[in-house]
Amino acid sequence: MPSFDIISEVDGQEIDNALNQARKELTTRFDLKGAKTEIVQEKDKIVLTADDAAHLKALREIVVGKLSKRGVDLRNVKQEEPALSSVGHARQELKIQQGLEGDKAKEIIQAIKAQNFKVQSQLQDRQIRVTGKKSDELQTVIQFVRGRDFGVATNFKNFRD
After folding, report:
1. Which of 7, 23, 66, 112 measures 20 to 30 Å from 51, CA to CA?
2. What is the dihedral of CA 130, 136, 142, 143, to 10 degrees?
3. Average of pLDDT values for 113-136?
4. Residues 124, 69 share a domain
5. 152 Cβ partners below 8 Å, 6+ apart?
6. Quick one: 156 and 83 in the same domain?
7. Are 5 and 126 contacting, i.e. CB atoms less than 8 angstroms apart?
8. How many distinct structural domains can be found in the chain?
9. Last residue of a domain, one of 78, 96, 114
């Protein structure tokens, strides 16, 4: 039976390239000269640290702008509230969502079922497997999911006839 997977992932290499570009821009920005700023990439998050809230805001704008230019879907980048200390240091985390979480996956499955497509959809390991008897029906499901905004990036892979 034909099937495909709905996934929600961002390319790790593009994130790495965007952060390298942001670090390079930090060295040339006049308003950030002499400011102690840092971009640290961890497994599923990016940690931004700066001297104060103004420098942190400029740093965040640079990083988000570079991520956007590199084609990283910003719906999968969750910005936490900045942590400002009384000494003046500022820190913020940008969490990167890989895979479909439970609520979002259920929302997508319910939306597909509500349209009465002749397909089966089920959650498997942070991705949704959609199977049907006709590949034309699967194509209409793909068009439907692309047309709706679920608040996360939706990509399709493993289309099998």
Report:
1. 66
2. -160
3. 88
4. no
5. 8, 73, 75, 76, 97, 100, 104
6. no
7. no
8. 2
9. 96
What is d(CA 107, CA 152) in angstroms, rounded to the nearest whole number? 11
Tokens of 81: 């509230």
Domain region containing 150 = 3-8+99-160
Residues 97, 155: Cα–Cα separation, whole Å: 13
Parallel, antiparallel, or unpaired: how do β-strands 38-41 and 45-50 relate?
A: antiparallel
- My answer on whether 36 and 81 are in the same domain is yes
Instruction: List, in order, residues 6 or more apart from 1 with CB less than 8 Å away.
Output: 131, 132, 133
- The token pair at 122 is 């089920």
Find residue 155's DSSP bridge partners.
7
Residues 108 and 68 in one domain: no
Q: Whole-model pTM? A: 0.80
DSSP state of 116: T
